[in-house]
Automatic annotation (TrEMBL):
Protein name (database record): Delta-aminolevulinic acid dehydratase
Gene encoding the protein: hemB
Summary of subunit composition and partner proteins: Homooctamer.
Pathway: Porphyrin-containing compound metabolism; protoporphyrin-IX biosynthesis; coproporphyrinogen-III from 5-aminolevulinate: step 1/4
CDD domains: ALAD_PBGS_aspartate_rich (cd04823)
Source organism of the structure: Microvirga puerhi
């Protein structure tokens, strides 16, 4: 038997498989892929977290977050103007407090002239159209780097909430549009809501860090706000166990009952299953935080030429939308906004 001559590919007249469904048909051209795309990322999905530092002017690089700087208030106002021009809806502010002002109680958090409050006032004055989110938690202000006050090695819940209420009030007075408790104390959302209402801040929104995990991915953030070196122990008695998912639903349910207007899941990419469950279960505005370590991983791999940083950035953010997130806090926000505009 001699082998049969093989037909050249171009001579093939009929497909060799008889398939009624060929999913590749919808992918054959860019116009068709765009037409059938289910999720898209737009600038309206972005919240830009920025770091603040004292000083008359200038900025300081955060070494574990290439491309991210701590900004003096003057620079923060300039960046807020840029963000508004790019149509980024909101900024989230995080202070690197002067170490001399940190103490075990986090007293500087209650100073209405602290770095965050001054920045809120200046940004609101210059760029009233951008939303300002302020973080409620004690960690940028405590000498031990925890989000609450301590008794020995215990983080005290109710004593901490009493301080968080006052912190939220001075932030609202400074002009914050959204108060974002990131401390994970029990009952803080309800307590803050009540205090805001009593003080006449009915329109100030609450974005609760509802499902916030005790994560290794926060490392570079702690460098940025200056708590890495001082943090004593870990945050596992208040932040959630990475093995849990049902517990995230209970946390979200509580924060909504207590008055949260929107909720957040954090970290982001390793917790997309939580984003999806939360969105499907509660159908409320759901945000995800692409945290500092996620940003650093993409930047580091890109700097080494190990992956295409820009493509990885866009794909990672689109994945949040596909999982059901209504928006994403991301350090890539200005870069993405520039790219989406181009
Ligand atoms: C603390 C807070 C953290 C982040 C936001 N608020 C860190 C922590 O819990 O230690 C992390 C954000 C990031 O990693 O980008 N209140």
């Amino acid at each position: 038997l001699t082998s049969l001559p093989r037909p050249a590919l171009h001579e093939a007249t009929a497909p060799s498989l008889s398939l009624s469904q060929r999913p590749r048909r919808n992918r054959k051209a860019d116009w068709s892929r765009r037409l059938v795309r289910e999720s898209v990322l737009t600038v309206d999905d972005l919240i830009w977290p920025i770091f603040l530092t004292e000083g008359a002017s200038g900025r300081e690089a955060v070494s574990s977050m290439p491309g991210v700087d701590r900004l003096t208030i003057i620079e923060a106002v300039r960046e807020a103007e840029r963000a508004a021009a790019l149509k980024i809806p909101a900024l989230a502010l995080f202070p690197n407090t002067d170490p001399a002002l940190r103490d075990p109680m986090g007293s500087e958090s209650l100073n209405s002239r602290n770095l965050v409050c001054r920045a809120v006032r200046e940004i609101k004055k210059a760029v009233p159209e951008i939303g300002i989110i302020t973080d409620v938690a004690l960690d940028p202000y405590t000498s031990h780097g925890h989000d609450g006050v301590m008794d020995g090695d215990r983080i005290l819940n109710d004593e901490t909430v009493a301080l968080l209420i006052r912190q939220a009030l001075i932030q609202a007075e400074a002009g914050a549009d959204i108060i974002a408790p990131s401390d994970m104390m029990d009952g803080r959302v309800g307590a803050i809501r009540m205090a805001l209402d009593e003080a006449g801040f009915q329109d100030v929104q609450i974005m609760a860090y509802a499902a916030k995990y005790a994560s290794a991915f926060y490392g570079p953030f702690r460098d940025a706000i200056g708590t890495s070196a001082t943090l004593v122990g870990d945050k596992r008695t208040y932040q959630m166990d990475p093995g849990n998912s049902d517990e995230a639903l209970r946390e979200v349910a509580l924060d909504l009952e207590e008055g949260a207007d929107m909720i957040m899941v954090k970290p982001g990419l390793p917790y997309l299953d939580i984003v999806q469950r939360v969105k499907e279960t509660f159908a409320v505005p759901t945000f995800a935080y692409q945290v500092s370590g996620e940003y650093a991983m993409i930047q580091a791999a890109a700097a080494n030429g190990w992956l295409d940083g820009e493509k990885a950035m866009m794909e990672s953010l689109l994945a949040f939308k596909r999982a059901g997130a209504d928006g994403i806090l991301t350090y890539f926000a200005p870069r993405v906004a520039e790219k989406l505009r181009a």
